[in-house]
Amino acid sequence: MLTDATLNQPLDDEALRVAIVAGLERARARSAALTDAVDDPDLVRQHSPLMSPLVWDLAHIGNQEELWLLRDVGGRDPILPETVDRLYDAFRYPRADRPALPLLDPAESRRYVAQVRGRVVDLLERTPLNGRRLLDQGFVFGMIVQHEQQHAETMLATHQLRLGAPVLDAPPPPVPAPGAARALPSEVLVPGGPFTMGTSAEPWALDNERPAHRADVAPFWIDTFPVTNGDYRAFVADGGYDDARWWSAAGWAHRQAEGLVAPQFWLRDGDGWARRRFGRVEPLPDDEPVVHVCWYEADAYARWAGRRLPTEAEWEKAARWDPATGRSRRYPWGDDDPDPGRANLGQRHLRPAAVGAYPSGSSPLGVHQLIGDVWEWTSSTFTGYPGFEAWPYREYSEVFFGDTYRVLRGGSFGADAAACRGTFRNWDHPVRRQIFAGFRCARDAAPGESPTPGSP
Ligand SMILES: [Fe+2]
After folding, report:
1. 58-103 pLDDT per residue, tens
2. Angle at the Cα of 46 (from 42 to 49), degrees rounded to 5?
3. Cα–Cα distance measured from residue 29 to residue 43, given in angstroms and rounded to the nearest whole number
4. CA 379 to ligand 1 centroid distance, Å
């Protein structure tokens, strides 16, 4: 039997409105915390050519909210001259060019996003959440919540690139019980056979997660935990960056051109390594998942370790498939929304948690920390599922399909629960390192090593 995850209870309009307002407010609290943490000159400065000035992200968040909710759904007139829309169109100007644009200044940006939000809350009260596909179960409001949360994660990456005194702080993540990770097997066998990948039931799922469909995988082993700093340190110490055997041709060329010798933000500290994290230099914690590695580095590490990256389908089967029922869950632990005891999400801790810190977040097969901590690179390129339909606009996903991007899964400590679930797909260039990305490894199961392929 192949069945999609079912939702707990379809919400009535009033409960949906409460959930939407809570989602909008949580997203705005993050945007505000990340932009209020620095002064105005810092907000308009470009901290890296890879990133927009923070003030661009802020006004862009408000502009998307205005375009979709006030102008499309509400039929309202523009708040600002329509030329402003062009400045905040992510497809018109690359990030590197944005600082030179006549952007709204910090005060104007804050005023604008507050004005938009006030009118959106007003509109939500009088808009029936059905009758139009865009509004069904509050989808377009959910899309805007996810959009702002995705930019909050992008802004957090800008903070990581920013030089200068630290301005962000958060409590440390939970600490695993002593020896908890070592007590578990290092890898888990996932039986081959079909499972349900993607979703047709999740109301706020984006077009690239749809529809639910049957995917088949051969039996494979997957790491119980993401690869840690300690694991990765061994690859570095073994000369992994100087040995072309471990790298793909494109990866080796990139490693040479960029002079890569270790993950981004690692710093030499005598014979060992330290790291810079949001402006603080600290000892490199061996038991935390490695972060800030590009796809090429993850791929090279896996080859050095005699392993490989999982495909996207393998990752999702390990995360969602329940062998007892044959059903795919919303999350590894079940269908309940994430909570702080199960996953490190939402910028609550501003760092990955040590492996073993979330035993109650593990999958039925015993794979840990699939959700939260670090995005996980997969070997797969970004494509549409069978039956894919671009919606509500091609630029959300479809224009990125092809061989250019690799898929990342599972979300990071910087991602919010609103924009992270078992089916959620992220994608980026294989050279990107400023994102909060790590990985785990997999390998084919040998014949006879696996239970008979096929679902129960
Ligand atoms: Fe955007």
Report:
1. 999 999 999 999 999 999 999 999 889 999 999 999 888 888 899 9
2. 160
3. 17
4. 25
Note whether 434 and 160 are within 8 A (CB). yes
How far does residue 369's CA lie from ligand 1's centre (Å)? 27
Amino acid at 410: G
Q: What distance in angstroms lies between residue 85's CA and the mean position of ligand 1's atoms?
A: 12
CA of 90 to the centre of ligand 1 (A): 6
Burial 246-284 (b: 16+ CB within 10 A, else e): bbbeebbebbeeeebebbbbbeeeeeebbbebbeeeeeb
Calculate mean pLDDT across residues 22-28: 98
DSSP one-letter string for 181-193: TTTS-SEEEE--E
Separation of alpha carbons 371 and 8, rounded Å: 20
Least confident interval from 176-180, 183-187, 281-285, 320-324: 176-180
List, for residues 31-49, the tens digit of each pLDDT value.
999 999 999 999 999 999 9
